[in-house]
Amino acid sequence: MKIGDVDLGYRPILLAPMEDVTDPSFRLLCKQFGVDMMYTEFINSDGLIRDARTSVAKLGIFDYERPIGIQLYGHEIDSMVEATRVATNAKPDVIDINFGCPVKKIANRGAGSGMMRDVPKMVEMTRQIVNATNIPVTVKTRLGWDDASKNIVEIAEKLQDVGIKALTIHGRTRAQLYKGEADWKLIGEVKNNPRMTIPIIGNGDIDSPEKAKLAFDTFGVDGIMIGRATYGRPWIFKEIKHYLKTEEKLKPFTIPEKVELAKFHLLKSVELKGGKTGIFEIRRHLTSYFKGLPHFKEMRLKLVTSMNPEELLALLDQVAEIYSDFVPDESINPSPWSY
Length: 339
Fold this sequence. Notes:
Helices cover 42% and strands 12% of the residues.
């Protein structure tokens, strides 16, 4: 699969851009476990052109992360075009437009998935962004605003016509948020539309190697993108790639192995963001690494309240000792598909 001149190989697996998740420390782990392409946290175009510190900081990328994309969101065309020029100077491999975020404060302003209520503006914004940069432009979006307006087939054609190089589709409407089951049949309909020539990347509910294989084999997508299933599980990319190649599942990680990864993640987060911010932003991962452990409530509380790196490292060592013989059953799909 190629996005412009960016060759991602056969059946690539991408890491979705996620606020407070896909920061450099987490991206490093995902890269080590074989992800084919990553994205920064999504960036507010207004903040970027105002030179807001938090927005500009998200532009920082390392050469070892390539290929990597920068994702922008906003509701004003001029701001998005100017932000594209700023992002271009950071030299990512891809610039992605966020037409998929369902968060109320973003969508209700007309940004993210809110743009799906104004398709002409969506298309015009995309056209101007494509013309503003020499970097391949891609789009991430949803099936539509709600069940009455699942217009992704039409939208995909229009976006391709103005020059995007790939399209990622999350298989839900904005109204669904993250509830219910992703509709991969409609994603497959876009992929199999004879008018479409750009790569189609499917997103939604892929939390196991079996589902990844089904997405490729049944719906014919060129690539898959994984978001929430990576929380505390950056090795999912390795699991999927192994399964696609062998149709065998990797041996589950032991708790001591997960502890060592969590410690590395913690230290890298503190190194890159400082003690307070680094610890605060890794909390969702620290608890997710140990999801499913019995009698873990008290330890979980300690992990999400401590602000001391040394204390957190000691707590993680305790987890390794207490649960050294415990092996979670990772053979069960968290949310089986009905397809």
